Amino acid sequence: MFKFQFLIMCALVFGPNYAGGKSAPVFESVHVLNYTDANLKCQDHGGLLDMNLFRSSSLFSGIIENAHELKPYLLLKENVPVWVSGLATSGPYIAPYTCLSLDKHNFAENVTFDSNILYECSVECARKLRNIGFIGITGNTCSCIFESYRFPDNPECEESDFLDSNKGIIVFILLQRISSALSNSLDFNCVSASKEIGGPQYHATKCLSKLSGICSNRKDSSLSSECIPKLNDGEFCFLEENATFIEHIKTCVKYGGALLSVTSDVTEFRNSTVMLGSFREFKAIEDGEENKDMSCVSITKSNEIFYLEKERCSNVNGVICMDDTLDKSGCVSNNGVKTYLLIILLWYLLW
Question: What is the pLDDT of residues 215-257, one digit of tens each?
Fold first, then answer.
């Protein structure tokens, strides 16, 4: 009886926005608009979602795990892309290559970047190495590695450390072939490939797209017997289950391999579109003006992961404004009991 009376009192005092403690967005359904129209829609509602709400602690700045810890989590619908404010410029295409021990390798010329290390390092090394060679990431330190460098034939990092730049030197290969094929693409961060009559074709693809994949032997290890079915006498294995880019990356590492980055390495290419290990990082430009050479940025929630993707500003996506992130629940916020809930409760008890 007490709970029923209290809920009624909250509804009377704070109106229809109260719904079991969750905020009700200004727009009850997700509008689908291009970036320009989305900006206009949110002009009087605090602007589009602020990109600063979504900062990744992982090596991949566009992939934010543990997304449920971020404030906008409840507002985003599963697998519905939504615009965020600002524009983006892309780096060159790269792919995971190997992991080196911190104690065994010392590169002469290193550069330190305060943020967005993978983007900054890939741009810096593509310029220095003319897009042929490798980049090494250790914390915020970037190393440009020549193509002739002799990498070890045996693994130097634990499986769990393969993508942790605080525990090893994470090496990526610069992919000149992919960069040339998709140099003018304004869409998406990842790459897929399909089998066509004239040979495999590359496509700019959303990283959260669920596709099949192919694991290949890595420089420092061979694929385990658990990775099946095998292709090319065991040099590759086919991942038949559709999965996202980061899921395939982790699966291939688990099997002692790497997600295949270019398709010409495979002679038994399956009749399906496959996710490749190739991708590019991007740099957000929060106050940039929309132009034909820049991409816009969307965010999508999928299985408690946020995916930030650059894409054409003319594409259509959902719209959530900053005002929608403000707590309008009246009685309970996403972070717990509000001060005025306690005041009302005291008033009720005294009354």
Answer: 999 989 989 999 988 887 788 899 989 999 999 999 999 999 9
Burial class (CB in 10 A: 0-12, 13-18, 19+), 264: exposed
Q: pTM to 2 decimals?
A: 0.81
Supply the pLDDT for residue 293.
72
- Residues 206, 276: Cα–Cα separation, whole Å: 11
Handedness of CA 121, 127, 128, 132 (dihedral sign): positive
Residue of 316, 335, 317, 310 whose CA lies nearest to 325 = 335
Distance, CA of 224 to chain centre:
28
DSSP-assigned beta bridge partners for residue 285: 87
Strands 169-174 and 134-138: antiparallel
Q: Give the span between the Cα atoms of 296 and 311, in whole angstroms.
A: 5
Contact by Cβ (8 Å): 187, 209: no
Phi-psi sector, 46: left (phi>0), alpha (psi -120 to 50), beta: left
Label each residue of the chain as H, E or C.
CHHHHHHHHHHHHHHHHCCCCCCCCCCCCCEEECHHHHHHHCCCCCCEECHHHCCCCCCCCCEEECHHHCHHHHCCCECCCEEEEEEEEECCCEEEEEEECCCCCCCCCEEECCCCHHHHHHHHHHHHHCCCCEEEEECCEEEEECCCCCCCCCCCCCHHHCCCCCCCEEEEEECHHHHHHCCCCCCCCEEEEEEECCEEEEEEECCCCCEEEEEEEECCECCCCCCCCEEHHHCEEEEEEEECHHHHHHHHHHCCEEECCCHHHCCCCCCCCEEEEEECCEEEECCCCCCCCCEEEEEEEECCEEEEEEECCCCCEEECEHHHHCCCCCCEECCEECHHHHHHHHHHHHC
| Beta carbons of 118 and 326 less than 8 angstroms apart | no
What angle (nearest 5°) sits at the alpha carbon of residue 287, between those of residues 69 and 296? 70
What residue type is 336 in one-letter code?
G
Nearest partner of 236 among 259, 254, 219, judged by Cα: 259
